Amino acid sequence: MQPDTVTVIAGRPAHEPGAPLNAPITLASSFHAGGAFEYGRHANPAYESFESVVGELEGGRALAFASGIATAAATLGLLEPGAVVVLPRHGYNGTTSLVQSGPYEVRLIDPSDTAGSIDAFTGADLVWLESPTNPAMEVGDLPALVAAAKEAGALVAVDNTFRTPLRDRPLSYGADIVTHSASKLLGGHSDLVLGVLATGDDTLYERLHDHRSLHGAIPGALECFLAVRGVRTLAVRLDRAEASAAVLADRLKAHPAVAEVRYPGFGSMVCFVVDDADHAQRATESSRVITHATSLGGVESTWERRRRFPAEPETIPAGLIRLSVGIEAVEDLWADIEAALG
């Protein structure tokens, strides 16, 4: 069955007379003893609906968490102190900050440099990959990197937030864990904070489930309901945003105020660089259609100057603008960009 169809039909109640079409929001902390559910910190029917959709899309078993960063924390919870962790030099700064604050030996790589990255895998316990990276948009050969990391004996996790399972399924070529900030493209409406991961390994699944239960990083029933509703339209949202992103990237390349455009040819994210931080800041604050805000993947377009965050590496250009393209009319987006840059 095609993934576009899975987004619509998976995770629904049984097809029985009188059954609801959608999985209901189950607002309960406790359940009658002796059944499939006991206590809300361990499981909830609303969690399982969302997990069923993502698990089927990714080709594994999924677990929902309170946030995307909670999925990274659970993955790191599989490691011992002193473990060697390899991650992108320009990856999401929340993940990088989390790893660097822990008791780990950290190695930073450029995923677009396949040979250099593979050299760093020797002796690694965990290889964490993003492609494209956030916000540098460095694109790596994920199948080759995953295969090399597995050959080196490392656990491999891939952040699939930007690509989504409609564009890539890392479990299918050997990754151990796939993670998402479901606040982004999966949810798609900027109305929830949620994370989800998937794995094809039953032992890893049980360990990650135990981590969620013991550390309390559980999602809310309402957030899971909203995320399922968001996933139902993922295919059409992503197709629309991706088509617009390609148009905007081409036009930005010809704009005299733009020094560099970073677009990998797929997805809804476009990063571009203007001459200095002040110009980038003024542009992002003066738009009327595009919202000046952090986060990404919603139906509304958003942008921001990434170096406004102190945790962003200094190797990210001060004038880099990260644009998340939504589903508005592309000509309105372009007119807004032109006016803001001017």
UniProtKB/TrEMBL annotation:
Keywords: Pyridoxal phosphate, Transferase. InterPro entries: Cys/Met-Metab_PyrdxlP-dep_enz, PyrdxlP-dep_Trfase, PyrdxlP-dep_Trfase_major, PyrdxlP-dep_Trfase_small. One of its GO terms (molecular function) is cystathionine gamma-synthase activity. Its cofactor is pyridoxal 5'-phosphate. GO terms for biological process: cysteine biosynthetic process via cystathionine; transsulfuration. One of its GO terms (cellular component) is cytoplasm. It is an enzyme of class 2 (transferase). Its EC number is 2.5.1.48. The modification N6-(pyridoxal phosphate)lysine is found at K184. Coiled coil: none annotated. Pfam families: Cys_Met_Meta_PP. Belongs to the trans-sulfuration enzymes family. This is Cystathionine gamma-synthase. It comes from Aeromicrobium tamlense.
